[in-house]
Amino acid sequence: MIHGMNHFTIVADDREATLAFYCGLLGLVDGPRPPFDFPGAWLYAPGGTQAVLHIVFGRPLPTPRTGVIDHMAFTATDLPGVKARLDAAGVPYDLRELPGGGLWQLFCHCPNGARVELDFAVAGVA
């Protein structure tokens, strides 16, 4: 039986831009990865012990850059800080309150075209 989500994997062509987005802007941490025979990165939530995002570099990206997964969603904190970092980096985003309240959803795209959702509890939004 399924117990929960383990990780997402994306294919990326620009290592620096991809890591700058996920680590620099969104706060994930580049961490331990098995010695595969292809380049990549495993990213962890700060203090986490399980990689939540696997990145594969050096494989051709699908054309067009679409697929069956609509987006990946992360639980997040510090909405004002995240917005400020995205604004400073010129990353467009869509911010909306979940119908019924309780959650703010910020949607943006990583440099590789993957749609990313960040979920912020309303109680934690200043």
Automatic annotation (TrEMBL):
Q: Which residues form the VOC domain?
A: 4-121
Q: Matching InterPro entries, A to Z?
A: Glyas_Bleomycin-R_OHBP_Dase, Glyas_Fos-R_dOase_dom, VOC_core
What Pfam families does the database record attribute to this sequence?
A: Glyoxalase
Q: Which organism is it from?
A: Pseudaquabacterium pictum
Protein name (Swiss-Prot/TrEMBL): Glyoxalase
- Source organism, top-level taxon: Bacteria
